[in-house]
Write a structure and sequence with these properties.
The structure is a homodimer of 115-residue chains.
Chain A: H1 5-8, H2 12-20, E1 25-26, H3 27-37, H4 46-58, E2 62-66, E3 76-80, H5 82-106
Antiparallel strand pairs in A: 1-3, 2-3
Chain A binds a DNA duplex (30 and 30 nucleotides) through helix 1, helix 3 and helix 4.
DNA sequence: CGTAGATACCTCGCCTGTCAAGGTATATAT
DNA sequence: ATATATACCTTGACAGGCGAGGTATCTACG
């Protein structure tokens, strides 16, 4: 039910970027927001989340800094870069494309509306 | 461009099932039809295809038999089973669901049309 | 006859993203 | 003290996709 690891594969990074476009945030927060947004249908696992952060930072799509909270646990904040914004737009186009392709391949005798 | 391995992951099996619903077929043919259907935007790689066949047969979603061609290379035909048809319907539902979830997570400030 | 290309099948081993399981530290409440 | 929530992180296993390689048949060309 909800959504499988295989189907989510490759979407973790754009999902994170999409959240960071709305403003800097940190891991725990992003994770909670995803769960809320999907009514608990999808939960990004922590290990997945943090490995995605690492990849995103290594490729320059995000950057990170420690928050200056003086109460509670420390937070590492992430911010999206210009490169990240561009990549996000690309991702979105790719996704629209991929949806069409998969729809076409999954639904026999459909999408053949114009030929 | 076109579609990445990560995004296609998990869709290979339902794509094959979708083709077999229209009638028995064999690897090479299925591969060609996929390319034609997507205008060469997506090509199922042979190694991917045959490993998917194996998984599908092992789990009883398809079965195979050798064609009785007496000219040309031999063909191994595949047929979808009842279990396969059910699995395909499940896959399609899951896919509709996954699309919604990913869309929601990818597009900020959208899909919030009714709340 | 050789060799090129299309048809048709298959296997091996690498790569990469996900995730279960474990760990650390701080603050609050009982 | 002990539990719970917040907040971070690492390690190693697993699985699916795929590059690279292989086999065999038939046709076409020079």
């Amino acid at each position: 039910m909800s959504i499988t690891s295989d189907v989510i594969r490759g979407h973790t990074e754009p999902i994170i970027l999409s959240h960071l476009i709305e403003g800097d945030s940190y891991g725990y927060q992003i994770n909670k927001e995803i769960m809320e947004k999907t009514n608990n249908l999808y939960e990004l696992k922590e290990a997945t989340l943090y490995s995605a952060f690492r990849r995103l930072e290594e490729s320059g799509l995000i950057l990170s800094y420690w928050g200056d909270e003086n109460v509670g646990a420390r937070r590492r904040y992430y911010a999206i870069t210009d490169k990240g914004r561009k990549a996000y737009q690309e991702y979105k186009k790719d996704w629209e494309n991929a949806k069409d392709i998969i729809d076409k391949l999954l639904n026999n005798r459909e999408g053949s509306s114009n030929e």
